Amino acid sequence: MKYFLLLLIIFLPISLLSQDEDDNMVISDQQSTYTYVMENNRVVVRENQDVTYSCAKNVQPVKFYRFYDVNSEITKIKVKGVKASSPQYGTYTKENIFYDDSKVCHLDLYFKDKNATGTVTYEKKYKDVYGFSFINIIENHFIKNKTIRIIVPEWMEIDIIENSFNPGISKSVNADPKSGSTIYTYRIENQPAYKYEDAMPDYLLTFPTIQIIPRKALINKKTEEFFDSFDHMYKWCKSKVDLVDNDHAVIAQLAKELTKNSGSDEDKINALLNWVQNNIRYIAFEYGIQGFKPDEAQSVVRKKYGDCKGMSNLLKCLLQAEGFDARLVWINTTETGREWTLPVPSADHMICGLQHNGEFHFLDPTVKFMPFGEIAYSIQGKMAMVEDGDQYLMLRTPSFPPSHNRTRLVSEYVIEEGKLRGRSELSFKGEAKYAMTFLIRYTAKSDTDMHLKNYLKRNNPADSIFEIDVKGIDINSKSLLISYQELRPSCLRSFSDEVYIDPDAFKDFSELSIDTLKRKNDYAFPFSQNHVTSIRVVIPEGYRIKNIPDDMEIETDDYQFSIRYTVNDDSVVYHKEITIKKTILPKTGFDQWNKDISLLRKAYVRQITLGKTTNEIEDI
Fold first, then answer.
1. Half-sphere exposure (CA, 13 Å, Cβ side) for 547?
2. Within 13 Å and on the Cβ side, how many CA atoms surround 373?
3. Whole-angstrom Cα distance, residue 50 to residue 78?
């Protein structure tokens, strides 16, 4: 369920133009006021903004835009000080979202002179108090001064959560002596422009925002509760699920057909889970109440696509048809939602829960090729709200160590005609397995061999990969194994009576230095991970080991790099292990990371040296 993220997106400065790091425009002043008012016995929120832009360098157009949706409307927009295009209104499309109700109003400001200023006055109404959840602080341009006011009348009660504030943001709270309203005032100074970067952490962990939680309101002497407690939040979420009209007879017939060859309960669960994962195309569909209400199970089957809510509801119905205790589960995929300590519907995802043999299992039908008993990294260790009739359960999903997402390479080489020749086995588990399985199964069969060879060559075109065999590609497999034969001239050099061996063609993470001058945000790895390599090189007859590189061991709280060598009578074994323990690498750790990556690169280029033991001339 992506509604929480879509609410956030509405408030984010998602750029409609490419952003120049050296921003030409500055927001010299911005006044934003949000006021709770009563209209026809309903609580609405009115937003008023005055945004003044100053041309700092070159004269060029500036695009101003604001988002709205089915539960909000833009009631006024005008410009003074500069010429502007007429406001344009239209649907806003986002990557990976099949359809949602987000719309955008935008216009262009035309500046004639350097140091010229122009002001946009903008008014918006949130017709549903649930839709007013975030106030964004940063913008697409540098902010010199900005003031945000939230005016809350005596009859309205809210909570405010402040995320990722920095020293340039201050807060005060005052009471209006005339109206009795509480006024929250935030003063913002010298905030850099929003900048998107690859591998960024969650938005709420990166940029300052204000999150609003409506608690309750006194309307006509009666209290209307919004999200005053987890009970209220669950009832609100559950009420949307209860609107679903599933055709259980149709689903029961499908479940019977899918499990007809299943012997055990686990076989049945896997059969149903895998069918939904691999026969229903995942899309994100958001429109008004559809941000919370699942699609009917029979509708998802008929259309062959669905969002996380529709797919989870279908899986729940299939499992229930076979007599299993299945429930819907609301959960957050972001780090900021790990604890879920406040009663706000911040869950951006829905999955299916299963109570079976005294244990509770979490099943995500949107992740292809993930077998029963495993869960995606994005929802590991998170608090989840599980439906339990009119009640609910708050359960924490299990967490797995980095070794759960292990990539292991085992190779054995001999030296032959100036090359390393050998056989390798490359295995994948966990997230690494899901990703590789997806790539193999969704690549055209005629292209699979070519892509695998290129992947295994690791940018060494002179090397040869052949006799590739893939096992574990079936849906229920918990590991994927790629075995292959190889000839690697790139890994061996000869000079005079010496042979130099570079055993590791993969050199994991060697290119992952971080540009500390350009990088603005922390770096987020997709999941914790573990890479293990064991390469045995047989020493040819007539040769001996002259030099073995020093071992290398680096360990921090965030990661570990290890390279070791073991010398046997007839061989030398290269051992490598890289572990990413924590997925967020903070900016404060960039310098140390770069130093350690540099040491890792140096360790990669150190070679095993063999020398001849006799004067006999040999061509190896």
1. 11
2. 11
3. 10
